[in-house]
Task: structure prediction
Amino acid sequence: MDSVGLACDGKLSDDDTAIRFHRALGTLPPALCAAHVPKSSLSPDAKGDAVGPFGSVFFSNLCRMSWLVKKQPGATENVVTVGLFPHKQNDGDRQRPTGLEFTFGDRIDVRPCNLADVEGLAERLPLSTRIAHLIRQNGPRSFAQIAEELGAKADSVIKAVNRNDRTFTRLDGNDGVGRIALVERRIA
Result:
């Protein structure tokens, strides 16, 4: 469904409009609906996690699953990268952010891409994912180095590493500085 706003019969800010929309949508087969976001969420200083559909909070609260879709221009004008970020999910296995790169020419080529490599979209990934990508690319790092390179708070980095002890391990350096590395996985 292209545009939730056009499918509604009232003011989008009214809770009753959102409730009627979802009640009508429930009578249809499973659907994919596109909703616009408030203009205030597009400004550079907007909080990225607070993005939701324009209008009543019930548009988001009553849906089963929602995704934030963010476009990032590519190296040339015929290349665009799109990040798909799960915003809400009520049941099932947790979905992970997904990246797709579109190349427009005589035909449209679509290929998966690693969002951690895309400036402008990588910051929307979970911090633990960004840490793992940084270490995979550059080797073991101290908490301070990770925080500086990712532009994150040192305390947030420490918490992310401590919560993911199956992903990260600590190495004692010869210089007395501990570093974080990825846990080595081998298939037996």
Summary: DSSP finds six helices and six strands in the chain. The chain has a mean pLDDT of 87. The two ends are 47 Å apart (CA to CA). Residues 67-124 form one domain.
